[in-house]
Design a protein that fits this description.
Chains A, B: This is Inositol polyphosphate multikinase. Chains A, B: GO terms for molecular function: ATP binding; inositol tetrakisphosphate kinase activity; inositol-1,4,5-trisphosphate 3-kinase activity. Chains A, B: InterPro entries: IPK, IPK_sf. Chains A, B: Inositol phosphate kinase with a broad substrate specificity. Two copies of one chain form a homodimer. In chain A, strand 1 and strand 2 form a beta hairpin. The first copy, chain A, is α+β, with helices and mostly antiparallel strands. The first copy, chain A, has ten helices and eleven strands. A five-stranded antiparallel β-sheet of chain A has the order 7-6-5-9-10. A four-stranded antiparallel β-sheet of chain A has the order 1-2-4-3, covered by helices on one side. Chain A has a two-stranded antiparallel sheet with strand order 8-11. Chain A is globular and about 60 Å long. In chain A, helix 8 runs antiparallel to helix 9. The C terminus of chain A is likely disordered. At the A-B interface, strand 4, helix 4, helix 8, helix 9 and helix 10 of A face helix 2, strand 4, helix 4, helix 8 and helix 9 of B.
Chain lengths: ~300, ~300
């Protein structure tokens, strides 16, 4: 039973003449490989390379990437006579009844050094018109399930988000009543905080990006998802149509954006902790707490005496 | 006794109709404030703000920035009748007899969101033509003193450096014979390594950049300097004519470039350690060693079980 994913918050949607992803009932996510578009072939090449590269730690692959099961030829919903190969991926929202989902495109720039002038100009304009250049990331879409239904800002609205809107959305995303002003941030502790939370996962991903020089993830997104079922929130990298070989250089563009997102999430956690107060049983864990528990983040070194004699 | 700095490796040089910095015999570095160029006023505003902002930790200010002593009106070398105000800064090479110096401009992009279209286009071209966009930093100049004299590649040559050239220069910089192929990297341990070395200082600076949202250091450089005198090598931020207010956002552009430089320096140290062998008394400290000694860099967290059922 193939169907269109109900909880897609960004990207192409299947139907009405457009190719889009499909899901089945057993946890698969099928992404069409459009033969007239090299991006599909590029993404397939990435998955093939990434899942066979022994230099990628197993924990990184299994924690932060969708599982990959090769390709499968499937009929297109609106043109069932037409068959097309699809990437066979993991449906990252499988098992969630009412998922809260956010798609965050990481990196201040989405163009890569070898891009055509046309693509480069298009990306550069989007990066400057969105929050990417300023903040190092932009939100591509989100939805929040709350008691009285689903809150999902329109795509055109999300596209115009300012830095203030992005900060607000990161708070609404973990609020029981996202429409409230200010958002209540009632789920900050259980979604962003804790040793299995989003912040801890972001910090683990950051460690890998400080070291890995295999791939540069231009235009890739982080999918952040949780539901009320009490499972650990998920953080996964998606959309690899513009991944380039790292050629021995770290992905400083992705890493910088990731650090900016980490800072924003840390601030929300710190604010929620202050609001909860020291005697509140809901003890939150901030980045500082997590790092303190694990020892200093960086060696504290004495850098030698400094000349201050010029005053 | 004012004179032109002998060991300047980048930036404007004083004389022949051009304004440039001057030094005296007691550790001052005077940078002219050209009244027809707003950059001087901008840099003065930065120093004034930075040195009076209580949110900047004292250790960061004293370890990684030149001391600042206000302004002083001085005559111009080629036109002694002309008086001009100068920034009074610390001569970072004071006390070094034969300094080895490198100027590294940090950040994949040197333009800032509010830049004029003209300045933006100029910066963007330089970033793409140099290693900045690709590597997250570029070398603006360097000199190495060795037994038989001074090695200082010409400015036009440095401007054309490829990624390979940059990596090579980072090795030549800590070699006794920089012209040798491959460079000997004999000083890797004493300059880049150790608890007072450049890598340890870079990591300390990185910690601050992961947190600080006060300033964005567009087009700023790291000055790396050492001499044979046995003092701790110096790492200082310089050139603040394009520093912008951070407005609550981390400087992901600078941070990304800094992490890329850290990775390059770590690799040189690791290679030198391998070359030295395990029984060599010259024990090197790599980033991994330094971080291991201080505890894990990031909390190691369990991210929860991963579905792998789609294979």
């Amino acid at each position: 039973m193939l169907q269109r994913p109900e909880h897609q918050v960004a990207g192409h949607e299947a139907g009405s003449g457009t190719l889009g992803p499909l899901i089945d009932g057993s946890g698969h996510f099928f992404k069409p490989l459009n033969p007239s578009d090299e991006r599909g072939a590029h993404e397939l090449a990435f998955y093939t390379s990434f899942f066979s590269d022994p230099r990628v730690p197993h924990s990184i692959r299994s924690s932060f990437f969708p599982s990959f099961g090769g390709t499968r030829v499937l009929p297109i919903p609106d043109a069932p006579d037409l068959l097309l190969p699809h990437l066979v991926l993991e449906n990252l929202l499988h098992g969630y009844s009412n998922p809260c989902v956010m798609d965050v495109k990481i990196g201040a720039r989405t163009w890569y050094p070898s891009a055509s002038e046309k693509y480069y100009a298009k990306c550069l304009k989007k990066d400057r018109d969105s929050t990417s250049a300023l903040l190092g990331f932009r939100i591509s879409g989100l939805q929040v399930h709350h008691e009285s239904g689903r809150w999902k800002p329109h795509r055109d609205k999300v596209r115009k988000y300012t830095v203030t809107d992005v900060r607000q959305s990161l708070r609404q995303f973990i609020s029981k009543n996202p429409d409230e002003t200010p958002p209540d941030c009632a789920l900050a502790s259980s979604v962003y905080g804790g040793s299995n939370g989003i912040l801890a996962q972001l910090l683990e991903l950051k460690s890998w990006f400080e070291d890995q020089t295999l791939f540069h993830f231009y235009s890739a997104s982080l999918l952040i998802a949780y539901d009320k079922g009490g499972k650990a929130p998920r953080l996964k990298l998606i959309d690899f149509a513009h991944v380039m070989e790292g050629e021995g250089i770290i992905d400083h563009n992705f890493l910088g954006g990731l650090c900016s997102l980490i800072k924003c999430v840390s601030e929300i956690l710190a604010d929620a902790e202050t609001a909860a107060g020291p005697t509140d049983p809901q003890v939150l864990e901030t980045a500082a707490d997590l790092e303190a528990a694990a020892g200093p983040a960086e060696p504290k070194v004495v850098v030698g005496p400094t000349e201050n004699g010029i005053h």
